[in-house]
Design a protein that fits this description.
Layout lengths: L21 E12 L5 E12 L4 E12 L11 E7 L6 E10 L37
Parallel strand pairs: 3-5
Antiparallel strand pairs: 1-2, 1-4, 2-3, 4-5
The structure holds zinc ion.
The site of zinc ion has 8 residues, from loops.
Amino acid sequence: MKSTKENQCKDKNCPIHGELKTRGRTFTGTVVSAKAHKTIVVEWGRTRLIPKYERYEKRKTKVMAHKPECMNIKETDIVKIQECRPLSKAKKFVVIEKIIEKTKEITKEKESKKEIKVTKNKKNEKTSSTKKKSTKK
Ligand SMILES: [Zn+2]
C-alpha cells in the first residue's frame, strides 16, 4: 500500500503514512459527503429482523470518517473504513482503502424514514442562571 510519494503525505492521522493505528471493525460503504476538509461521511445499509412480521427492514448506518491527505476521495466513491482511536467528537473511523471510484450520480432514493423519537419530558430544572453560550472554534 505504500506509495512512492511518501513525502507529500504529512497527515499524522494517515493509516498508511502516519502514526495512526487502526483496529476494530471494518466497514465498506458509500461516500455520501466529501465537503469537509478532512472528513467524509460514509453510509452503508444493513437489515434488521422484525420478529412480529418475520420480515427484514432496511436500515442505514452513517458515520464520519477521517480522509487522509493522500487519498483523493469524492462523493459516491466506495471506500473501506476501519475503526481507530477517536479523532474528534464524531470521528472514530479512518479510510484505509478506496475500492471503487464511481462516476455515476447518486440515484436519489431518499426514502429515509425518520424515526419518531419520543421526546422525553424535560424536567423543570433551574437553567436560568447558567446559560451556556455557544462557542464556535
Ligand atoms: Zn498518506
